[in-house]
């Protein structure tokens, strides 16, 4: 009775092995890697966009301060010094010196902000170029994956057909149990008894369960839910 379901399980093992080969293939590995790279680059692009916005804002702030100091200095220079007292003149000169020094420091700030913006723009372009390359790589590996899938499809279809054919000769209760566990990604579902222990999880069976197993031919493992057979 169990012989058929175990043969059926062997067909599933073949299918799983084909699927694993597909997953292990270099093009599939590249595809997975490239998907991550594109996502990372897109996130980086968003990050750079935010950085650029804030750098431009800073630049504009410096620029406004610079223009204000520049105009103040201009007004000061245009003032008629003829009618000034000596202390007014000294005050004017001191004010002008302060403005010149302020303009110098603002100019340095402006140039460093401009450099900052240009670095961000450069990084942005590199990132965008990378995305174009990754997308090309994605297309290539996707195509290679599809080709490989196509090449094993006849084999897969054949095994599926054999499985369907075999299902007719399997006890429906047993088959349902099998399919139920397969849905939960459990494989293999039927495992042989191994030294009085479950062949799946190695849990030792107490005497009472051993007797039940001997009487019924198979037994659900309490630990891993697989079916143990003799
Ligand atoms: Zn078990």
- CATH fold category name of the largest domain: Helix Hairpins
User: What is Rg?
Assistant: 38 Å
CATH class of the largest domain: Mainly Alpha
Bound molecules: zinc ion
Features:
Helix Hairpins; binds zinc ion; 2 domains
List strands and helices in order, with pairings.
Elements: H1 2-24, H2 26-78, H3 86-167, H4 172-183, E1 190-194, E2 197-198, H5 207-216, E3 218-220, E4 227-229
Parallel strand pairs: 1-4
Antiparallel strand pairs: 1-2, 3-4
Helix pairs in contact: 1-3, 2-3
What does this structure look like?
With 230 residues, this protein is mainly alpha-helical. It folds into two domains: 22-167, Orthogonal Bundle (Helix Hairpins); 171-230, no CATH class. It contains five helices and four strands, in the order ααααββαββ. It has a four-stranded mixed β-sheet with strand order 2-1-4-3. The longest helix is centred in the middle third of the chain and has 82 residues, at 86-167. The mean pLDDT is 94. Zinc ion (ZN) binds next to loops.
Short description:
By secondary structure, the chain is mainly alpha-helical. The chain is built from five helices and four strands; from the N terminus they run ααααββαββ.
């Amino acid at each position: 009775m169990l012989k058929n379901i175990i043969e059926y399980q062997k067909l599933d093992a073949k299918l799983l092995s084909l699927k694993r080969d597909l997953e292990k293939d270099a093009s599939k590995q590249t595809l997975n890697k490239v998907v991550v790279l594109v996502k990372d680059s897109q996130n980086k692009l968003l990050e750079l966009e935010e950085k650029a916005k804030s750098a431009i804002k800073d630049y504009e702030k410096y620029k406004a301060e610079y223009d204000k100091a520049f105009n103040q200095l201009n007004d000061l220079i245009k003032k008629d010094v003829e009618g000034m007292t000596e202390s007014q003149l000294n005050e004017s000169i001191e004010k002008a010196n302060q403005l010149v020094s302020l303009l110098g420091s603002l100019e340095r700030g402006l140039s460093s902000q401009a450099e900052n913006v240009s670095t961000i723009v450069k990084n942005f372009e590199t990132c965008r170029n990378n995305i174009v390359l990754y997308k090309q790589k994605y297309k290539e590996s996707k195509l290679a994956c599809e080709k490989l899938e196509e090449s094993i499809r006849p084999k897969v279809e054949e095994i599926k057909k054999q499985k369907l054919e075999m299902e007719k000769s399997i006890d429906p209760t047993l088959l349902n149990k099998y399919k139920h566990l397969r849905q939960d990604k459990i494989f293999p579902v039927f495992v042989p008894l191994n030294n009085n222990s479950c062949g799946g999880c190695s849990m030792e069976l107490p005497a009472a369960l051993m007797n039940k197993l001997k009487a019924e031919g198979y037994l659900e493992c309490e630990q891993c839910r697989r079916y143990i057979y003799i």
